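Running this now, will post back.
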Amino acid sequence: MTPLLQVEAMSREFGGVKAVSDLSFAIDEGRIHSIIGPNGAGKTTLFNLITGVYTPTSGRIRLGGEDITALPTSARAARGIQRTFQNLQIFFNMTALENVMVGRHLALKPRFLPSLLRLPSMVRADAETEAQAVDLMHYVGLGTWIDADADAMPYGALKRLEIARALAAKPRLLLLDEPAAGLNPVETASIDELIKKIARAGTTVVLVEHDMKLVMGVSDHILVLDYGRKLAEGTAAEVRANPDVIRAYLGAGAA
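Update: finished.
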């Protein structure tokens, strides 16, 4: 079976410095994959390459067998790639519900004239979008924040709001950049369960995260980066026992 995502011999240079170097790996559909490594290992750069923010210096990216290396971010989103960000990207001048609705509108076909005239078809579509956004807020555990302004929400709730907005576009591949960063242990455990829930529903999840307890608990497959190169990959047990990973990242106490 063709992997959902294939990265082939990909490199990205910034002023002669290779942030990602000759990297190849594959992501299977319907699983939870994690990418770990020290600060500066190239993890966020890799996310930016997959989503089209950066173009590789060399190499290719395939989604479902299709070469998407030259496609812009918008085209990749239309093909089912969505992401969250390490630093929250929330519309604070909107309500929580409107933030999620924005994610759904990105997946709808633009129809200028029906929108301008407020034809019944558009009224129905907007009502359906709002109902779906409400359902998604309940799904991620934000049912009590549906009527809230985004700027009134606590940090942990905003992390879930960004995930809900990404899910609104019905992604095939969801990239989560540090979803547990800044959260307390209770909030982190809830994010752990949400990630598993999303994967069980059929969305492939790729996770960049420094919380090793979360990573080891949710991941079907882990890729370890070191200075932009693949150091190791495998199951949580295989990565935890890998001496190169222990030396470079996890520390002797992790074995």
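Residues 1-80+173-255 form a domain with the Rossmann fold fold (CATH 3.40.50.300). More later if anyone needs it.
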